């Protein structure tokens, strides 16, 4: 586990500034949700933590290392995306093992980590299946399994539930929270869904147009919104 310190991080694409000196501190083991309307810069910020986008200004530290110039593979993070990105021609087991095999991990360790992830996520009955033979929820669990087997310091989620139907979304919210309670891995979770933010976060970061409007615990934001935008955004169901 590790703390994550995002300090005055800015991002411009060409001449267009999409993030303006954003700072967020995430404590070791905390579950932080970045929430805000589409286009406000949530994914860009998360991708910079992952190392998938360069930083235009400021610093990002994971644990006690500034990671601005480290490639994604050296950052000790694992990211779960909205569209799963599972390998269609690999089984569930192979999908989970693949990233470890790429890193030349000892086969005994690979087997042990895959087994542990399958136990945690209830995937044991599906290990020999291919992604097309799974439901949406099961695929999302495999995507989480791939993240878990890497034993990362930090989990990054980018709208992982937005392709699921409403009922499954509620169930997966609970599963992701239970996973966090079990593993206590520092987590940054991006969503545009206020209910997801309110029910999952230890701490919510409300963003708008590349800036942070307010940071606080769910009830703090609900009871004492800093402005009308936060009040409207947190107060109204999606
Ligand atoms: P969110 O995830 O909150 O919906 P994004 O981080 O995806 O927002 O995007 C923030 C802004 O940056 C948007 O205006 C988007 O169009 C712009 N943007 C994102 N990626 C790129 C890119 N590769 N090139 C140019 N503009 C981009
Ligand atoms: Mg996004």
Structural write-up:
With 238 residues, this protein is an alpha/beta fold. The chain contains eight helices and ten strands. α2 packs across α3, α2 (92-102) packs parallel to α4 (136-148) and α3 crosses α4. Bound molecules: adenosine-5'-diphosphate and magnesium ion. The site of adenosine-5'-diphosphate (ADP) has 10 residues, from α1.
State the gist of this model.
With 238 residues, this protein is an alpha/beta fold. The protein has helices spanning 42-50, 92-102, 107-121, 136-148, 166-183, 194-200, 218-223, 228-235; strands at residues 4-13, 16-26, 31-35, 57-62, 65-66, 77-80, 154-158, 186-191, 203-208, 211-216.
- Separation of termini? 32 Å
Strand order of the largest sheet: 6-7-8-3-9-10
Uncertain spans, ≥5 residues at pLDDT below 50? none
Kindly report the average pLDDT value. Answer: 93
Kindly state the percentage of residues in helix: 25-40%
- H/E series: EEEHEEEHHHEHEHEEHH
Structural class: alpha/beta
Beta content comes to: 25-35%
What small molecules does this complex bind?
Answer: adenosine-5'-diphosphate, magnesium ion
The gyration radius over C-alpha positions equals: 18 Å
Number of strands: 10
Q: Secondary structure elements and their pairing?
A:
Blueprint (H helix, E strand, L loop, with lengths): L3 E10 L2 E11 L4 E5 L6 H9 L6 E6 L2 E2 L10 E4 L11 H11 L4 H15 L14 H13 L5 E5 L7 H18 L2 E6 L2 H7 L2 E6 L2 E6 L1 H6 L4 H8 L3
Parallel strand pairs: 3-8, 3-9, 6-7, 7-8
Antiparallel strand pairs: 1-2, 1-4, 4-5, 9-10
Helix pairs in contact: 2-3, 2-4, 3-4
The structure holds adenosine-5'-diphosphate and magnesium ion (MG).
């Amino acid at each position: 586990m590790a703390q994550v310190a995002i300090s005055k991080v800015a991002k411009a694409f060409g001449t267009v500034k999409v993030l303006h000196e954003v700072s967020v501190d995430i404590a070791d083991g905390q579950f932080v949700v970045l929430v805000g309307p589409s286009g406000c810069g949530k994914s860009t910020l998360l991708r910079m933590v992952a190392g998938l986008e360069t930083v235009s200004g400021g610093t990002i530290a994971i644990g006690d290392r500034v990671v601005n110039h480290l490639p994604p593979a050296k950052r000790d993070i694992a990211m779960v995306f909205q569209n799963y990105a599972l390998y269609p021609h690999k089984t569930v087991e192979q999908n989970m093992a693949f990233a470890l095999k790429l890193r030349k991990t000892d086969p005994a360790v690979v087997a042990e980590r895959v087994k542990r992830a399958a136990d945690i996520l209830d995937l044991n009955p599906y290990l020999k299946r291919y992604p097309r033979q799974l439901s949406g929820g099961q695929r999302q669990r495999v995507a989480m399994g791939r993240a878990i087997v890497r034993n990362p310091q930090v989990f990054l989620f980018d709208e992982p539930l937005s392709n699921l139907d409403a009922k499954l979304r509620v169930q997966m919210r609970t599963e992701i929270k239970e996973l966090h309670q079990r593993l206590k891995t520092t987590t940054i979770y991006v969503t545009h869904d206020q209910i997801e933010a309110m029910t999952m976060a230890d701490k919510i970061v409300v963003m708008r147009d590349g800036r942070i409007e307010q940071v606080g615990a769910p009830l703090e934001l609900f009871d004492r919104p800093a402005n009308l935008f936060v009040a409207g955004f947190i107060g109204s169901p999606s």
